[in-house]
Amino acid sequence: SFKLGGEDHAVKTLTEIVSSDTPGQWPPSGDASSAAKPKKTARRSTSSKADEETIAKVLDHPETKALVVDIPHNAITGMTVVDKAIVALYGLHKAGIGSEVFYSVISNYLYSVFHTTVTADQIGSALRHLTPPADKYIVHKKDAGYRITPSGSEYIEKTYRSSSGNNGGPVQTELMEP
Fold this sequence. Notes:
Elements: H1 6-19, H2 49-59, H3 62-70, H4 73-77, H5 81-94, H6 103-114, H7 120-128, E1 138-141, E2 145-148, H8 150-161
Antiparallel strand pairs: 1-2
């Protein structure tokens, strides 16, 4: 497909080439190897526009704000990479992201919400080598990403939410899954 005006430009250029009798012009039967090769475009390795839209959607969500209160910065920085990823998947789920996400979304969530830096590579390595019991907290769908399981949600609620931000009482009912 062509960008706006691209088709008109291509037709004009081809017409000039085919009908040109000017010396030095490239004839249709000429050697194409002297033509300039297109440059490769730089790939964004850390996130895509869809990842950024996902993060923007959850930043102002009430569940995200409640999670930050329940799990303070000093608690999240002391966690393992796997637990940080589980917290991020939990937060994304609670904020309405019901589909699988890739490492970059988890990394961006941790940075944007908790102001802690964990690279997508660190998360990928940790999640590829899950061991019990963490392997039951996260599921992986090939070519789609990761998602938290009901066991993972229960783990976060019992381990981090029940003792933080609510004076050690039970988890708030509106935060529990149906």
